[in-house]
Amino acid sequence: GDPDRSSARARGVARAIDLPWKRSETGPPPLAAIRTALVSDHYAPAAVVSAILGHVVAHHARATVTEPSKVPLLPLCICGPDGVRKTSIARSIANALGRPCGVIDLAQLNSAEDLWQRNDEPGALMSVIEKAKSADAVVVLAGFDRSTARLREEVTALFARISDADHCANFCDPFFGVPFDLSRLLIIVTSRWPQAFSGVDGGLLNVAEFPGLLTSQKVQMANRTMIPEALVDHGLAADMLSLDENALHVLIESYTDEAGVRCLDELIRRVAVSYT
Question: From the CB of residue 78, how many other CB atoms can be counted at a distance below 10 Å?
């Protein structure tokens, strides 16, 4: 046979031994902590909070019944304009659940081979599980709308595949060559708009759509997270940069034109750089 293929197979078998086969014992999801993170840190409206909490509860129920390997897995889709911090929202959910979180940028992948069908290395999906050392990880498939049309079709096929009970319980990455149960994995997909999922069976996704942020909310996010993060990243003391509410209003209303806070974050970081 092909020596390179045989070598990859041997590596796959050796690494499969260290996959997180043991199921962790988890109690009911901490809904109050998730709600607090969504409302306090991300200003999620009530309908969005309700959709996410409902999804988390349903997912927990599917994953903890008597025969968890026989239940389907549905992804959660977080939609919203650029800069509303969709991936950060997913990380906050993971933190509240006490689970590791891994992000897969779909825009950086070319095909299903990169995601779950490689022979020489694990696909991105199983790589996240391997690195997280947890079958309970939160996996973010970021930028569905920015991925290629071909990859969108293949990711959609993956949704169908893992939403089927048997496939979910026996998901097989060719590199490892052994079935792995994905029933406890919490998959969150992000997109700028729900229309990107027009070709996806509505039963395969639970959609939570975030609107744009108000100016007052952007001001609070700047003070709470963006300014402290910019100071830390540039090695500045906490008292070296202070922007009052009026200054932030000027930055937001005169120098940004966005539903989210991406440009505002960049402006704050440019101001912080001037202090270094």
Answer: 26
Residues 99, 96: Cα–Cα separation, whole Å: 8
Cα 22 versus chain centre, distance: 23
Condensed to tens digits (0 to 9), the pLDDT of residues 133-174 reads 999 999 999 999 999 888 888 888 888 877 777 788 889 999
Cα–Cα distance for residue pair 265/213, rounded to 1 Å:
14
SS3 helix, strand, coil % of the chain, rounded to 5? 55, 10, 35
Segment 123-137 mean pLDDT:
94
Q: What token pair was written down for 134?
A: 């947890």
Query: What percent of the chain is predicted at pLDDT more than 90?
Result: 54
The torsion defined by the Cα of 157, 191, 85 and 41, in degrees rounded to 10, comes to -80
**Tokens coding 56:** 């988390």
Across the beta sheet with 101-105, the strand order is 101-105, 138-142, 186-191, 76-79, 206-209
Residue 168 has what pLDDT? 83
pLDDT score recorded for residue 75: 84
pLDDT level of residue 69 (50, 70, 90 thresholds): very low
H helix runs in 98-222, sequence order: 112, 124-132, 149-163, 165-169, 215-221
Residues in the chain: 276
Radius of gyration of the chain (CA): 21
CA distances from 86 to 32, 43, 82, 178 (A): 20, 12, 8, 33
Residues 151 and 110 sit within 8 Å (Cβ to Cβ): yes
Write phi, then psi, for 92 (nearest 5 degrees): -65, -40
CB-based contacts of 241: which residues, under 8 Å, 6+ apart?
227, 230, 231, 271, 272, 275
Which pLDDT score is estimated for 61?
84
Task: Give the mean model confidence (pLDDT) for residues 162-189.
Answer: 87
